[in-house]
């Protein structure tokens, strides 16, 4: 079977990596909208149009399911996409629920893009789960650009994160949620700033959900070869995919 993956750029590769480990015998079509990244600082209407264009492109490859491997795209368009297409569509959202459930006497800090934090979908999620009012949110838009430009310099990123996190007393926090798939490239740098804080994301849970949905839908799994076709805003670029995956494998994204 063929599973589509979509993200504004290379962040969704962190989710694809989990899928390749859990579902290695499926085939994949990955679409990175690199000509229009980042999404998180654009208008809602502009982002929606980019999303619909991308999914329309992916659909021509007869995919059996789609993973919207982007928190921002999920918050903007997941409901409409499910109305338009009849295959299973798996979205992502910041891992607020597991963070709140595991954090007893401290606070939770959710890091995401500005558009994710502004959307009603995120606000409703927090309102529904955060009965103790322990969730704080912070937008880190520049971190997406750093990842897309392969900027992983510890000193530069640490300086940026220290500045953004300066208003927060990290001793008050028990869990940090990486609510954008691009941020996962910087997990080890976050750990340098927050060594005693749990740092979580929704990637593994998303792929588990994908597997369960496919099983419930009676799809015949393990019928592919693990092939990945990589498209950068509509252009097939397998060489670029290999370059991206080399970077992904170099920087530790796993817990």
TrEMBL record:
Entry annotation: catalytic residues: 70, 180
Instruction: Identify the metabolic or biological route this protein is part of.
Output: Cell wall biogenesis; peptidoglycan biosynthesis
**Enzyme Commission numbers on file:** 5.1.1.3
Keywords assigned by UniProt, alphabetized: Cell shape, Cell wall biogenesis/degradation, Isomerase, Peptidoglycan synthesis
Q: What class of enzyme is it?
A: isomerase
Classification via InterPro entries: Asp/Glu/hydantoin_racemase, Asp/Glu_race, Asp/Glu_racemase_AS_1, Glu_race
Chemical reaction(s) catalysed: L-glutamate = D-glutamate
The entry marks the following residues as binding substrate, namely 7-8, 39-40, 71-72, 181-182
Recall the GO molecular function terms of this protein's record: glutamate racemase activity
Which superkingdom heads the taxonomic lineage of this protein's source?
Answer: Bacteria
One GO BP annotation here? Answer: peptidoglycan biosynthetic process
Q: Pfam families under this entry?
A: Asp_Glu_race (PF01177)
What the protein does comes down to: Provides the (R)-glutamate required for cell wall biosynthesis.
Protein family according to the UniProt entry: Belongs to the aspartate/glutamate racemases family.
Q: What is this protein called?
A: Glutamate racemase
Organism annotation: Iocasia fonsfrigidae
Taxonomy of origin reads:
Bacteria, Bacillati, Bacillota, Clostridia, Halanaerobiales
């Amino acid at each position: 079977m063929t599973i589509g993956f979509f993200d504004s750029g290379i962040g969704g590769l962190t989710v694809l990596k989990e899928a390749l480990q859990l579902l290695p015998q499926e085939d994949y079509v990955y679409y990175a909208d690199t000509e229009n990244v980042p999404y998180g600082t654009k208008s809602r209407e502009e982002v929606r149009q980019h999303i619909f264009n991308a999914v329309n492109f992916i659909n021509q490859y007869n995919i059996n399911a789609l993973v919207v491997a982007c928190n921002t795209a999920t918050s903007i368009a997941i409901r409409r996409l499910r109305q338009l297409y009849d295959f299973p569509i798996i979205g992502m959202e910041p891992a607020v629920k597991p963070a709140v459930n595991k954090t007893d006497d401290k606070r939770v800090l959710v890091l995401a893009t500005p558009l994710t934090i502004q959307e009603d979908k995120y606000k409703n999620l927090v309102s529904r789960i955060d009965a103790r009012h322990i969730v704080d949110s912070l937008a880190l838009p520049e971190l997406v650009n750093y990842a897309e430009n392969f900027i992983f310099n510890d000193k530069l990123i640490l300086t940026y994160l220290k500045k953004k996190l300066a208003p927060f007393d990290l001793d008050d926090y028990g869990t940090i949620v990486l609510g954008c798939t691009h941020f996962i490239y910087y997990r080890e740098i976050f750990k340098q700033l927050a060594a005693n804080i749990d740092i979580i994301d929704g990637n593994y849970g998303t792929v588990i959900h994908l597997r369960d949905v496919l099983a419930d839908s009676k799809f015949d799994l393990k019928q592919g070869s693990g092939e990945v076709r990589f498209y950068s805003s509509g252009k097939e670029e397998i060489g670029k995919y290999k370059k991206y995956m080399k970077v992904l494998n170099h920087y530790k994204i796993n817990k």
